[in-house]
Amino acid sequence: MIRKKIIIMAGGSGGHVFPGLTIARYLIKKGWCVKWIGTKNSIESKIVPKYGIKMHFIKIQGLRNTNLKNLIYSPIYILRSYYNITKIIKDWSPDIVLGMGGYVSGPGGISAWRFNIPLVIHEQNKIAGITNYWLSKISTKNIQAYPGTLKNAVVLGNPVCESIINIPIPIKRFCNRQGLLRILVLGGSQGSSILNHILPKVFFLLKEKCIIWHQTGNNELEKTKKTYKKLGLNEFCITCFIDNIASAYEWADIIICRSGALTVSEISIVGLAAIFIPYPHKDKQQHLNAQDLEKIGAAKIIDQSDLDTVSIVSILNSLNREKLLIMAEKAFSLGIRDATQNIFNVINKMSKKI
């Protein structure tokens, strides 16, 4: 039997890479050959090879907030990347190409379109990234996590790993749970300076009510630990990264976090009350990602411009496990748990080989 081949293009942030990796691992389990196009010195270069997936690196970066030198050289980087990816596509002849977002997807998407290779685009956020927005106009099939993001796109959700999908439902997790409220803090895959700065002060005021598991990101672990220690908060778990995020979700009563697309999807799938502090993108993508959960009473949103110690303390003081269980069950009602299988079905159907 001839094995089907796919090129996955994703890079720049965990929000693009982790959903792509979930799909890649599922495809490999189904007998597919997978290659990945990304950039060096980015999150994908550190994570993807761990799973035995062959990576090809290109040199490209976004044009937003870049310096003059990179702006001048960007056309050269784009053309060189397009040439390199075209060579990979001609030599390997994939059955399909999947773009998960990030600027790395651009040259590969155009090359796939030029050589009449089926091109599938998956958009994770409520607001499409610039690369996916343009590629969606030439793609064979568009997939989105939320309705209304791209034209002519099917809503299939964000793929997440099985360990998260298999977490017990909220009522089972909360059954006979007693003691201090368990608060999980996530600032995204890179951490969040503002959460690392404000939340130790919040928990100092609430130290008789809660216990904390705080992911700081690599750059601010020691600094945040010192802040907690200075406030006399030595019993909390402070770590740079949580490898087993499923265990953290299962442990928590509530999460305080950014509202990246994948985090919001995972919270909905697990069923977990949340306080979201969206990253202040100009297009408000993170705010919009979290809006549906806030509307049904599963979450609170505090914009970063309004964030202070008092606002979070006030919310947490108003909550108990009974209320948090109700919020968790509302969140659970929005979860899309079969995204990976359904995305695989689309890819399998759109690929060239029958």
From TrEMBL:
| Pfam families given in the database record | Glyco_tran_28_C, Glyco_transf_28
Molecular-function GO terms, alphabetical: UDP-N-acetyl-D-glucosamine:N-acetylmuramoyl-L-alanyl-D-glutamyl-meso-2,6-diaminopimelyl-D-alanyl-D-alanine-diphosphoundecaprenol 4-beta-N-acetylglucosaminlytransferase activity; undecaprenyldiphospho-muramoylpentapeptide beta-N-acetylglucosaminyltransferase activity
Q: Which InterPro entries match?
A: GlcNAc_MurG, Glyco_trans_28_C, GlycoTrans_28_N
One GO BP: peptidoglycan biosynthetic process
Annotated residues for binding of UDP-N-acetyl-alpha-D-glucosamine: 13-15, 125, 189, 242, 261-266, 286
Q: In which pathway does it act?
A: Cell wall biogenesis; peptidoglycan biosynthesis
Query: What membrane topology term does the record carry?
Result: Peripheral membrane protein
Documented EC number(s): 2.4.1.227
UniProt KW keywords:
Cell cycle, Cell division, Cell membrane, Cell shape, Cell wall biogenesis/degradation, Glycosyltransferase, Membrane, Peptidoglycan synthesis, Transferase
Per UniProt, residues of the Glycosyl transferase family 28 C-terminal domain are 183-341
- Is Transferase found in the keyword set? yes
Where it sits in the cell: the answer is: Cell membrane
Primary localisation category: membrane
Catalytic activity annotation: di-trans,octa-cis-undecaprenyl diphospho-N-acetyl-alpha-D-muramoyl-L-alanyl-D-glutamyl-meso-2,6-diaminopimeloyl-D-alanyl-D-alanine + UDP-N-acetyl-alpha-D-glucosamine = di-trans,octa-cis-undecaprenyl diphospho-[N-acetyl-alpha-D-glucosaminyl-(1->4)]-N-acetyl-alpha-D-muramoyl-L-alanyl-D-glutamyl-meso-2,6-diaminopimeloyl-D-alanyl-D-alanine + UDP + H(+)
| One term under GO cellular component | plasma membrane
Glycosyltransferase family 28 N-terminal domain segment(s): 6-141
Q: Which family does it belong to?
A: Belongs to the glycosyltransferase 28 family. MurG subfamily.
State what this protein does. Answer: Cell wall formation. Catalyzes the transfer of a GlcNAc subunit on undecaprenyl-pyrophosphoryl-MurNAc-pentapeptide (lipid intermediate I) to form undecaprenyl-pyrophosphoryl-MurNAc-(pentapeptide)GlcNAc (lipid intermediate II).
The record's HAMAP family line, in alphabetical order, gives:
MurG
Q: Which NCBIfam families match?
A: murG
Task: Identify this protein by name.
Answer: UDP-N-acetylglucosamine--N-acetylmuramyl-(pentapeptide) pyrophosphoryl-undecaprenol N-acetylglucosamine transferase
**Source organism per UniProt:** Buchnera aphidicola
